[in-house]
Amino acid sequence: FGDIIAGVVASGPLLAGAVIQLVSPYAIRRLGSHRRWVVLNAALQAASFVPLVVAALLGRLDALGLLAVATFYWATGMAAGPAWNTWVGTIVPRSLRARFFARRSRAGQAALLAALLAGGAILHWSASLGEKLLGFALLFGVAGLARAISSWLLARQSEPDPLVQRVTGELDLAPPRSTPGNRRLLAYLLAVQTGVHIAAPFFTPYMLGQSALGLSYAGYMTLIAASFLSKIFALPWLGHFSAKYGARRLLRLAGVAVVPLPALWTFSNDYSFLLGIQLVSGIAWGAHELATFLLFFDAIRPEERTRLLTWFNLASATAMVAGTAAGGWFLSTYGANMPSYSTLFWISAGARALTLPLLAWMPDVRVDAAPPAMRILAARPASGSIDRPVLSDREDSVVEGPLDPEEVTAER
To answer: Which residue in 9, 129, 146, 307 has the most C-beta neighbors within 10 A?
Structure first.
């Protein structure tokens, strides 16, 4: 369908998912359970792979159908997020949360890395046989089966406290109260998202399309995996840096580091050079993400975090779409060729640079806590991955005072 449609499919459907998650409180109240809402969305997300498998086997699917499937995938996936965050807090005992979610994050990262490498190998193999679509059918089938299994496992989890009584009968659509600190933080983050997504959604067609680099699937997946891997290994060190020097300083360094990343792609097409850029990119975006979440947790009132994160997801998706629209307009006007891509990458770098003055007014935060646990939503070539924090990892993770004897027994 061309480079522009590929970019739109990579970011546009996130907006639908961010909107759908706002109605989660109403749906949970009607279903009478967080678990039922999570399992329902997980099962529907698994079903979204069926039309992709059919399309790959038949060899046809129009652009509107592809966009509809991607929108359904993201809508069901993101709608389950807030409910899962609340529900999982009732399953995992407070005294075990920090350790449990840290291990869960590592397991998720390892699984995603293995899937990236395996997926790239399968697509490379099918392409070498002249059967590209067969490889995609296989990947979509395995992905759908994996998500179906996860929905079955979710359904087998307990729900000791449905918490439905805490869900109001009205839609909880009111934005959270804003303070100068979080206003400045949100303004900076949304400006960065817009600047980044002028180019970010188009890295995939740039790397795979014949009009640009024309990498193999194996080479493409290796570049994504390199960014993701460097991000994983850098996070512990970045956590120590933040504890010593503060989250604001980490965010400032990260904000400067992410500015030139897209422009570096215009200097050379040598694969080793691109691999090096991806390794640096993973560290830079890991620092940016960690500092952002630490500021969320420590500069924003605990009772506001869930609602603020929900609204930030919506605002962030809107910024992504705005940036993507600008980048798509540029490529449609000047053509999806190497000179246009080079200009687009420099425009993205310039837009990122314009956000740097906003960093001067960030509130400073020093934290001794470990980096927050993450839920991985997607792997992306420009940033390593799209992650969201597990709020239950931070809320009530430290037990204050003696526990009730029955609660001690339950936790044991």
So the answer is: 9
